[in-house]
Amino acid sequence: MTELVDVVLGGTFHAAVLFLVAAGLQLVFGVQKIVNLACGSFYALGAYFGITAVGLAIKLGMPPVLFLPVLVVAGLVIGLVGLPIERVLRTIYRRDESYQLLITFGFLLMFQDVFRYLWGATPRTMDNVYLAYGSAQFLGVRVPTYNLLVIAASLAIAVGLGLFLERTKIGRIVRATAENRDMAEGLGVNASKIFALVFTVGCMLGTVGGALVVPSSAASLDMAVELVVESFAVVVIGGLGSMRGALVGALVVGLMRAAAISLVPEMEMLSVYLVVVLVLIVRPAGLFGKAAA
Amino acid sequence: MLDLSNLKVDIEGSRILNGIGLSVAAGELVCLVGRNGAGKTTTFRSIMGYRRARSGSISFEGADLTKLPTWRIAQRGIGFSPEESEVYTDLTVAENLELSTWTRPTGRAATARIEEAYTVFPKLRQYLARGGGQLSGGERKMVSIARALTLDPKLLLLDEPFEGLSPAIIPLIAEGIGSIRAMGKGVLMAESNVHHIPDYVDRIYVLERGEMMFSGTLAQAHRDRDVMRVIAGQIEVVS
Ligand SMILES: Nc1ncnc2c1ncn2[C@@H]1O[C@H](COP(=O)(O)OP(=O)(O)OP(=O)(O)O)[C@@H](O)[C@H]1O
Ligand SMILES: [Mg+2]
User: Fold this and answer.
1) For A155-196, what is each residue's pLDDT tens digit?
2) Which residues on A lie below 8 Å from B152 (Cβ)?
3) In-domain check, residue B16
4) What are the chain A neighbours of B98 within 8 Å (beta carbons)?
5) d(CA B9, CA A231)
6) Inside any domain, residue B104
7) Whose CA is nearest to atom 25 of ligand 1?
């Protein structure tokens, strides 16, 4: 029983972070129709910048309980790099998909060098945050309080994003632009502005995800590519372009991985990709994807 | 209000509009008539800035539109309802109509603008909460025209508002367009079937293979043999 709770909590924690990155990927794909491979770099960028921000907070003598909000703010601030990157991507929106993949892949590679240059090649860790939040009793299992807070934060972001897209004026304009950009412009929508907004929000989802995860693991050069691979599993399972798909896909991937790690650790990614292959065979459009017309 | 002069538009290297001129005065209802492929949609899409003119001018209230992005053209007060309606399926009917009130705030309250659209097409009230994907072709057309109207425009561009609709619904749309004109708004509508031209139009233009071959009243057009040969040609063959 405790083992099950352990797996579920560990899996949900991983899913919470994965969801943020995948949601960014889905949002950008839904509106701009580009598959952004650089989403993994945003995640790593958030992690590295989070370490720097917490380091600064420690220097300023901030109490450890404030570290979580510091990380969230750090993620949001560094997410603004999405703005200049979108300006570059803007030139290829109407190009062939292969160009788009190549250019976002190019960003992924360039970011690797930027990380190496700024933060060095050895992984950077930070455990002062993790320890500062202590642990809590949950269904008879001791779990790090920090993990529960991250799950709660991710859930809040999911709900907030959903409400934004469903209920607000801008959210509806975003959905209209996603469905039919030309018509939106014909009705007075400045689609370039919407694109810049969406890309920046998508980027922030990734950087906040990275910033939130770093206290529990490390910031490393491998994490960007690792996350791209996992996000793709999430997107294939959930369906490209669907927010609900990102949520369910992230849970499936997170829980599968946690279960595999506890049962047969060597099969960690294999188990995830078994699900991916199964979904591709049975439901090629993913669980929540719109079937290709 | 709207003036096109000597407008030339090419698509993929071939000349589609060959120096056409056209004007719509404030409050006027003008019909652009032409057979399939004559260039009506191309004219509308050029006015809206989706296509760039090779040469010639398009001006609206004295300002040049040819270099403006589409969204700015719309914000100047031109409401566009395209041939395929293009109603948002991911939004409800009510949200489709509200959208244009957010993108172009004018002195008039959004509620008043939306209310006005419902008086033009009273049937729409029944579908408010319905998704844009759950509508018939005629209902979609009404939403599309109503959405152009909630922009609170000075001019509406309606591309073939009767095309493909059942005979039962055509009078409803025609009535709606009549009441839009009665509000004092300018309307430029495209039509390929001469028998669908509402008798209350002020003037018509006849477009044939990218050239404007006639401009005048509907009655004058009916007396012009060349015009009738072009726009009523298909019907004469049948009868
Ligand atoms: N995207 C395009 N690529 C190539 N040719 C095009 C394109 N769009 C229009 N054309 C050509 O331009 C000409 C005018 O087309 P347009 O759609 O403006 O005609 P229309 O008068 O609106 O016809 P319809 O009554 O069928 O709607 C046609 O010969 C058409 O084949
Ligand atoms: Mg047409």
Assistant:
1) 999 999 999 999 999 999 999 999 999 999 999 999 999 999
2) none
3) yes
4) 169, 172
5) 45
6) no
7) B36
Question: How close B20 gets to chain A, by Cα (Å)?
Answer: 23
Residues of the domain holding A227:
2-282
The answer as to whether A173 is a domain residue is: yes
Indicate the pTM of the whole model: 0.91
Residue B218, domain member (yes or no): yes
User: How far apart, in whole angstroms, are the C-alpha atoms of residue B177 and residue B29?
Assistant: 9
Residues of B at the A interface, defined by Cβ within 8 angstroms = 48, 50, 69-71, 74-75, 80, 82, 86, 88-91, 95, 98-100, 102-104, 147, 151
Nearest to A35 by CA among A107, A104, A125: A104
Q: pLDDT tens per residue, chain A (293 residues)?
A: 778 888 898 899 999 999 999 999 999 999 988 889 999 999 999 999 999 999 999 999 888 888 899 999 999 999 999 999 999 998 888 888 888 889 999 999 999 999 999 998 888 888 777 888 888 887 788 888 889 999 999 999 999 999 999 999 999 999 999 999 999 999 999 999 999 999 999 999 999 999 999 988 888 998 999 899 999 899 999 988 888 899 999 999 999 999 888 888 888 888 888 888 998 898 888 888 775 43
Say if residues A232 and A36 touch (Cβ distance below 8 Å).
no
A65 found inside a domain:
yes
Q: Is residue A22 part of a domain?
A: yes
Q: Give the pairing of strands B29-34 and A218-219.
A: unpaired
CA–centroid distance, residue B55 to ligand 1 (Å): 19
Residues spanned by the domain of B209: 2-86+153-232
Instruction: Count how many domains chain B has.
Output: 1
Domain count, chain A: 1
Quick check: is B111 in a domain?
no
Looking from the CA of residue B34, the nearest atom of ligand 1 is 21
Q: What is the per-residue pLDDT across A134-148, written as a single tens digit (0 to 9) for each?
A: 888 877 888 888 899
Q: Residue A137 falls within a domain, yes or no?
A: yes
Q: For residue B121, give the nearest of B156, B102, B97, B90 by alpha carbon.
A: B97
SS3 for B146-208, per residue?
HHHHCCCCCEEEECCCCCCCCCCCHHHHHHHHHHHHHCCCEEEEEECCHHHCCCCCCEEEEEE
CATH number at residue B182: 3.40.50.300
